[in-house]
Write a structure and sequence with these properties.
The chain has 241 residues and is α/β, with parallel strands linked by helices. Helix content is 36%, strand content 26%. The chain contains nine helices and ten strands. The strands form two sheets. A six-stranded mixed beta sheet has the order 6-7-8-3-9-10, sandwiched between helices. It has a four-stranded antiparallel beta sheet with strand order 2-1-4-5. α4 crosses α5 and α5 packs parallel to α6. The longest helix has 15 residues. The C terminus is likely disordered.
């Protein structure tokens, strides 16, 4: 469902992403792990068609996101780190608005809103202004919004950044529920995210993919925190380009 084939993104002499290749199969929840500045967000933006690769290709369900972005976007739910929301709207009003924008059939829209509200555990706040909600609830409103049109692929960029411990647990539970039906690529630099939600790990460092394997294997190879540190240091001596 997700294919990165030798992706590169170069800015001047700096390689933000350098020859990255991987695939994500239908039904997988994959943690895209790495320290801050590793190139995770840049890779995700190329996968969504927001950025054009310097070289290589990004495909969703076989659709090249450079050549046919609109067709690929129809299959995609993308939640950036700070997803756009309208603070004066309620979650119900926001979902109704975007449902109409995305042409969800009018007869189906109320039931579809109730369905994503249930999935993201929003029922208690559906009629409160979004601006009055905690960041954890706002993240779940963003997830409900991207799920509204039933995307095949979900790409989530640092969905728990800035949340308190209770909010983090709530968002992780939502991701696990979503992952039972969807293909999910979850960007994070937090090891607990791997333990909580992922079946597989992709580890990016200085724009290079340095680990691709099961979450169990990643966590079993010695102390996980030490493993994170070692992989983060692996390419430090290598030139950027």
């Amino acid at each position: 469902m997700i294919e990165a084939d030798r992706l590169r993104k170069i800015y001047g002499r700096f390689a933000a992403v350098d020859d990255v290749s991987f695939t994500v199969r239908r039904g997988e929840v994959v943690a895209f792990l790495g320290p801050n500045g590793a190139g995770k967000s840049t890779t995700m933006k190329m996968l969504t068609g927001y950025l054009t690769p310097t070289s290589g290709s990004a495909r969703l369900a076989g659709i090249d996101m450079t050549e046919n972005r609109l067709a690929g976007a129809a299959l995609l739910g993308y939640l950036p780190e700070n997803g756009p929301l309208y603070p004066d709207m309620t979650p119900r009003a926001l979902l109704r608005f975007f449902g109409e924008v995305w042409r969800v059939p009018k007869k189906e829209l109320p039931a579809r809103i109730d369905e994503v509200a249930e999935l993201c555990d929003l029922r208690s706040v559906m009629n409160k202004p979004i601006g009055c909600l905690s960041k954890g609830y706002r993240q779940r409103v963003g997830m409900a919004n991207v799920l509204l049109r039933r995307p095949e692929v979900l790409i989530l960029d640092e969905p728990t950044t800035g949340l308190d411990p209770n909010q983090i647990l709530q968002v992780r539970e939502t991701v696990k529920r979503i992952g039972r039906e969807k293909t999910v690529l979850l960007s994070t630099h937090i090891l607990q995210e791997v333990k909580a939600v992922a079946s597989r790990v992709l580890f990016l460092c200085r724009g290079r993919l340095v680990f691709d394997g099961s979450a169990d294997r990643f966590l079993a190879e010695g102390d996980a925190e030490e493993r994170f540190y070692q992989l983060s240091r692996e390419n430090e001596a290598a030139p950027a380009v």
